[in-house]
Every structure is written in C-alpha cells, then in structure tokens.
C-alpha cells in the first residue's frame, strides 16, 4: 500500500468509495445519526431508510445516482464534491479552485476550437480570393501578436483604448495641399 501512495495511485478517484467515506464524514461532522440522515433524505424526496445509510457508509451497499444527488443536497455540497477524494473534498476552497481550473480549461478548449473554425473559414474564403491572402495573413498575425503582448503585460500596465497618436516632429515638413 505504501508503494501505491508513493506513486500517487492512492489519489485515483473511486467515486463510490469516496461517496461512502464522505457521507459518513459529513454525517458525523454535523452530529447526525443515520436516522437523521434518512429523515432529511426522505423529506427531500429521496426514499432511504437508516439501515441503507449505514450500509452505504460501510460499503455494504452501493449508492445509486438519485441517492447521491440526495446526499449532496442535504449536505449542501455539489455532487462532484461528494464523489471527490474525501480529504481534499472536505476543503471546500480547494474544490472550488479545482473546479475553476477545470471550467477555465474547458473554456480555453472551446475558444481554441472556435479560433480554429474561424481560421478555417478565413482560409476557405482566401482560397477563393487569393489576391487578399498576404494582407489578411499579415493582419491576422499582427492582431495575434498584439493580443499576446497585451496578455504578457502586468495588469497595471495594460493600455486603455487605442494607442495615442505620436506627436509630429517639429522640423518635419508639412504635407497636404495648403499651398
């Protein structure tokens, strides 16, 4: 077992085992009996008796999805939190941060997919209008470079609005048709 823990294998999620431990931890933390948990589940519309709660906690009975939803509801935790590793899941802030990373990673993947689709659409259009290819590629490359540079700036240094126009040099000749 020590080898498993050293290799990180002990951290592999095992939903039902985690749920059994979490139910017992959550129940004991609140000072509730298995009768109290059963009563709360029944009041919330999830029919389960105290014996079934005890059997689930002691891994003598599997928990079904509806019951897991009920347990999460009465304990005031997300279903994902309920099935997470008990030690980690007991730290709500850690679970929030992990979920934030997962959500942002999904958003990043969706944004990457949308960017690829947009690039494919532009490529298809430019295949029909090859005379625009060079200018379009430069414009896209410049826009991406500007966005990357802005993303690398510390938050306080980000420019607000378009960049200011440079002041003309005093000795520069006037242009135009003022003559």
Automatic annotation (TrEMBL):
Q: Which InterPro entries match?
A: Cro/C1-type_HTH (IPR001387), Lambda_DNA-bd_dom_sf (IPR010982)
Q: Which domain of life is it from?
A: Bacteria
Where in the sequence does UniProt note compositional bias of the Low complexity kind? 153-162
The signal peptide stretch is none
| A GO MF label | DNA binding
Q: Which residues form the HTH cro/C1-type domain?
A: 23-82
Region of interest (Disordered), ranges:
150-179
CDD domains this protein is in? Answer: HTH_XRE
Task: Report what the protein is called.
Answer: HTH cro/C1-type domain-containing protein
State the organism named in the record. Streptomyces paromomycinus (Streptomyces rimosus subsp. paromomycinus)
């Amino acid at each position: 077992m020590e080898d498993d823990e050293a290799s990180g294998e002990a951290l592999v999620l095992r939903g039902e085992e985690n749920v059994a431990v979490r139910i017992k931890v959550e129940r004991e933390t609140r000072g509730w009996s298995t009768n109290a948990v059963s009563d709360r589940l029944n009041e919330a519309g999830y029919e389960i008796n105290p014996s079934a709660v005890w059997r689930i906690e002691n891994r003598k009975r599997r928990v079904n999805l509806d019951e897991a939803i009920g347990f999460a509801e009465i304990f005031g935790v997300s279903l994902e939190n309920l099935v997470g590793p008990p030690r980690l899941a007991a730290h709500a802030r850690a679970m929030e941060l992990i979920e934030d990373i997962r959500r942002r990673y999904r958003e990043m993947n969706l944004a990457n997919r949308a960017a690829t689709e947009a690039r494919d659409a532009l490529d298809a259009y430019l295949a029909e209008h090859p005379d625009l290819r060079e200018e379009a590629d430069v414009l896209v490359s410049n826009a991406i470079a500007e966005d990357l540079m802005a993303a690398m700036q510390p938050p306080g240094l980000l420019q607000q609005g378009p960049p200011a126009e440079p002041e003309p040099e005093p000795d520069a000749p006037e242009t135009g048709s003022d003559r």
